[in-house]
Design a protein that fits this description.
With 219 residues, this protein is of the alpha+beta class. The N and C termini lie far apart (60 Å). Helix 2 crosses helix 3. The strands form 3 sheets. The protein has a 5-stranded mixed beta sheet with strand order 2-1-5-3-4, covered by helices on one side. It has a two-stranded antiparallel ribbon with strand order 6-9. A two-stranded antiparallel ribbon has the order 7-8. A hairpin with a 6-residue loop joins strand 3 and strand 4. The longest helix has 15 residues.
Amino acid sequence: MADTELTMKLDGKDVSFTPGETVFEIAQRNDVFIPTLCFDPRLKPFGSCRMCAVEVKGMKNPVASCTTAATAGMEVSSSTEVLDKHRKTLLEMVVSENRELEVSPLRGTASQELSILVEKYGAKTGRFKGHQSGHSKLDDKNPFILRDYDLCISCYRCVRVCAEQEGDYAISVMNRGFHTQITTEFNLELRSSACTFCGQCVQTCPTGALADKKALRHA
């Protein structure tokens, strides 16, 4: 006897899913746009950026769709006035620390993700502009990877792809809160770390904080 099909409502439409699927995965499969900054399909769901938050009927607060497993009968709204305001405010705060928003697409395949979302939600307002938490390592003499951390938003995609995909653990995080920094062991240059210069970190970075030096040189 076949298993009973599981269904939920996504923006008022009945959609099917398999046990263990997240709301975000179901939305992607059904061509429903949910924004995110910390998501990479190669990595385990992290839920840190909160851009992918959705409203679930019966729940007081929005939940991160990338870490929320679907349940039968669940009713989810992916885009509401409240959610759009939430996303715009998050983007405004993220951009407030960055030296610049528009960067060359040659920096990496994902380097335009932040700027595209800022444009979509009209979040380039400057109302939260303040101190920058990132400290660039522009003096890192390696010939491959530019470490322009003034553009870093602490999504940790670079840290996670280095660990989960490459198993190198060359990139890590130090400090907390506003003083959080992406770094290497002992805060050394990449050449003195476990980095193999595979470029995975560059290609997952959504802001261009990590960039391909060779591509920029030949532009």
